[in-house]
Structure prediction request, 601 residues.
Amino acid sequence: MGRRQIYLDYNATTPLHPEVKKTLTEAMELFGNPSSLHGFGREARRRVEEAREEVAAFLNATADEIIFVGSGSEANNTVLSIFACPSGHCMCHRQGAKDILTTAIEHPCILETARCLGDRGVNVSYLGVDRYGKIDLEDLAAKITDTTGLVSVMTANNEIGTIQDIKEAARITHRLGALFHTDAVQAVGRIPVDVRKLDVDFLTLSGHKMYGPKGIGALYVKKGISFCPLIRGGHQERGRRAGTENTLGIIGLGKAVEMRLREMDEERKRLKALRATLIKGIEERIPDITFNGHPTDCLPNTVNVSCDGAEGEAILLYLDLEGIAVSTGSACASGSLDPSHVLLATGVSAEAAHGSVRLSLGRDTTMKDIEYVIDVMPGVIQKIRDMSTGYTKKEAA
Amino acid sequence: MNEQPGWAYTDRVKDHFMNPRNILRDEDAFQADGRGTVGNIKCGDQMEFFIKVDRQKETILESRWRTYGCASAIASTSILSEMVKGMPLTEAYRLSPKDIAGRLGGLPEHKIHCSVLGDKALRAAIDDYYVKNGMAERVKTKKARLVCQCMNVTDLEIEQAVLEGARTYYELQERTKLGTVCGQCRDEATGVLNEYITKHFSGS
Prediction:
């Protein structure tokens, strides 16, 4: 059909920025081990450290506060695991408080790690969120106790785009004597993130969410904060993450960050306008829908909408057949039985969670794409509702 | 992307998903002799099945349906509506999830429960017809049998757990809490577990 292909799943992953692709292609020749002392090694080391400078500058950190890791998930696992360090045998051992407080809407790489640490003797507690996905800062203050070692709150949510007040959350956490981590995988590269202004102790970012390569992430660890590696057995990353550096990934991430520095502000404004158009179009042309997420404190690229009487996987697949790529919080699509834990945490009904779709925009999204979606989506929803038990019932009621 | 790579579904599923047959558009016009509803929107799928019966021959003349659910739920109900056309009620009553999934050319394992709803909805519709026509004695309600006395878990709950992915005794325990008190039902539960794994997932 030669149909158009519209990618609206940038929160899942992003394509490489053309400049990143170019840099990577050239860097393919580079094979030296950054730990080697000879010329090959020194060249690789130079490129790795350049990238580290880029990432540090982007976050307003210093280079020695940046650890390159294999993914955002690894960074998050690393941070949480510090607090499960069981005894004084380990040099890193942090005296005292080791309990973890996090939120109900974190990514599974936080939630499942926390649950696992719970089995290993760490007390884990969770903050709920309001219907827009915001944590309550008073609740945060109330839940931090003498035994709380770490508070981990994501900067922006991957499913609904809600942005938390990280600066205030970190301030409260520090006042009460705990350390603060934020999973900023969806935020870094989309909105300004400054670790000094936010005053966080740990921050996670990922390359492939900002037009960089997959398989590379970075963890910011504030200078002077005790640390315990997750992967041991090498001096790389100053002993904080063993394993020969993923030089290509690191170089790609460095370039991606450099491009973000140049393009992010412009893109943010552009996406905000596209997002507003998309929301308005859906609102006007599809009845019985609800938007999920915060109306204003939200990523400039994320729209999450629940459609009454239509199941998310069916919506996703019909849109896919029309050339539109989205994702859903429906259980059916994930292979699990439960719909999105994020949406359920915001208090929406299981039905609304099953009927949710997420459209996430990015640098290649055009107004034409948005117009096409607004054109096609109402028909898709109507088709599903026409055969649905749920929707007919609602009309009759 | 030319041909939708990596569709987890067969072409049959895709065809029935894209072009669903026999959707109930107008309930009053169809005048069903029996109707059945199963599932729950909260759980992500719900199906309604409507049949018209040839009372002399005791066969299904025609059927219609409505489904809230994913692609495999929609495709399962759609193909079921074709399968039962002209089928004797007694035969239709015995259709299994495997029969439906088989006609679709197979479903991914975690989607089997979608086809389960299809055959249940059909049976509910036939039951409805029987009851309305003075043949209530033909209704075969499946009676649950208690397997774990301590935690009050039945064989039907084990079946449900299998359909939802439990394959080992341990997974069964995780889902149903069965055998977590005295543990005496372990052998029986394992037997029932294997029975349902064979019923729903082996061969086809």
Notes: Residues 173 and 340 of chain A are 28 Å apart (CA to CA). Residues 393-397 of chain A have pLDDT under 50 and may be disordered. The longest helix of chain A spans residues 247-285. The interface with chain B takes residues 5, 309-314, 317, 320-321, 330-333, 335, 337, 339, 349-351, 354, 386-392 of chain A (CB under 8 Å).
